[in-house]
Amino acid sequence: MMFKSVDILIGLSVIMLVASMAVTMITQAIIAATGSRGRNLLAGLAGMIEQLDPGFSKRHAQEIVKMILTHQAVNGGASFGIVRYGDVIHREELTKILLELASKAETPDQAMTKIQQQALKALKNTMAANGITNPEQTLDNVRLFALQLEKSSPEMASNVRHNIALMRHASSQFLAKINSRFDSIIDRVSERFTFNARILTFLSATLVAVALQLDTITLVNRLAMDESTRSAIVHAAIEVQRKDNNKPTENPSDQPAATVPVSVVNDLYKSLANEGILTVPKIGEWSDSWKNINPAGVLLSILLLSLGAPFWYGALGKLLQLRSLLAHKDDEERDLRQTTQGTGKPATSAAAQSTPPVSNTQSATAAAPGSATDSTILTAAKTAVNAAKVAESKAQSAMTAIDEINTKLDQLFKKKPD
Question: Between 36-50 and 58-69, two packed helices, what is the crossing angle to 10 degrees?
Fold first, then answer.
């Protein structure tokens, strides 16, 4: 029962890991296609630029940030001739690009639209009102001073050099407003992106669960009843873990903390496909298959898939360690039982075999209290009693572990979603 409960959880974790990987891929594809990171950064920076001056309009602020995020030093490249917004920008980069754009207000590019030209003039006027009257000269001074710092202190980080240069030659109310608001704005952008990503993850989980008709309740029942399927999935998980552990170790700092190896998911998917799990129903059979699907099980699957592939990868590793520990304890208890049985019988038989034929008088003497034979039998009996007590104690510990696992399973399947 103990191994069966753990194996059911391992099988469920394998299924959720493979399906969650599909959810992650769909979510990342949607984020990349829609440019969600860049758009959230655009909204955050536009709000900050708009707050630089009461007369700065929202439309002008958006145009300024669009020019910043499509700048050659920041943009995310071009796809089908469309330049993607950059999704990362440093504070020093932002300030220098703003100075560069403001310096073009008097001589804008011919390719710029009228609204962009108006936005550049509004930006230059805002800088002048906040202490920077000549953006072009200020930017040149900043670059030259940063170069001098690199020559005199080459060990200094690049962002530190440029920050010191800006403090020296662009010290103004404009710089103060940028520096004081940038970090808080980026934090809000990160929170907004995380919230949107969670919504996309939930929608992707719904798509995968519905398309695959992933019914957690039915899957758990199948794992509980079908020993061959359960054993095959557990064996595949153990083999994948063994292969992953045998790989040469890499520098942990070079690997993301929540990375799920694609090779692991591929191997586990092959095992699930062989057992007829996680297969996409045919179009003609998909609607008819819903007759045997429990909607509550599908809803539970959506919630579990929303936890993400890294969660299930970590859970699978912990469950495999628990199973290995339980197997080790079971082997120890088996060896202890065999050793206990061996110390009783061989001791008696060895004494009997080593005792030569004796007369009646000698037999009566051997049976007398305090003889060597009685002492040997008494010692063997005490050893057997002590071993039995140890075995009983370990058996009680094992039963306690089983009760805890059963309690967690009941909480998992009886808990209703909010």
Answer: 130
